[in-house]
Amino acid sequence: MPAPIPNTVERLDRPSAYYLGKNKRRKFNKDRDDRDERERTPEEPEDPLKDATTLYVGNLSFYTTEEQIHELFAKCGEIKRLVMGLDRFHKTPCGFCFVEYYNHQDALDCMKYIGGTKLDERIIRTDLDPGFQEGRQYGRGKSGGQVRDEYRDEYDPGRGGYGRAIAEERLKEEEEYGRGR
User: Fold this and answer.
1) Cα-to-chain-centroid distance, residue 26
2) Contact between residue 94 and residue 85 where contact means Cβ atoms under 8 Å apart
């Protein structure tokens, strides 16, 4: 019998890398705090993404509307709720959203068929999410948006131009140049 051919395509319904990393940090800290406690029962942790009906959708344009997202994501199933990610201070869209379906299979179908497609000339990414909680709709960056947009050094018109830290640095250089320094 020939050896099985390894699968070169990654599964589309795999858990989010962010979520897995977060759990590893928690487990590491728990193990470090409980070093003296050697008697543990080897339990398999419950996977909160096993029946997840919520999707995190990232890399959206700042100009993508709820209607556009709803139209695209409704092709995979009935949407229960759609929550746009907002800049914490300006309350404007900042490039992500949460889409909640009524059942798990619709969320998996969406990851399979819509994840990696283009919306507003941007390739969107989708990840299963354990569930939306109030407060997660706001960006976590210093300026209120997403952290990844703070230090972006290339110009991206779909996400507001340069990253905020780079834009401030460029503005400072332009002011110094205008003064003749």
Assistant:
1) 19
2) yes
- Specify which residues 57 forms β-bridges with: 97, 126
Q: Which residues contact 158 (CB under 8 A, 6 or more apart)?
A: 61, 62, 63, 120, 121, 122
Contact 80, 101 (CB under 8 A): yes
Q: Model confidence over 117-163: pLDDT tens digits?
A: 999 988 999 989 888 878 777 765 555 555 555 556 666 666 666 66
Q: What is the pTM of this model?
A: 0.61
- Our CA angle for 61, 168, 94, nearest 5°, is 20
Structure tokens at 140: 């976590």
Residue with tokens 């230090």: 151
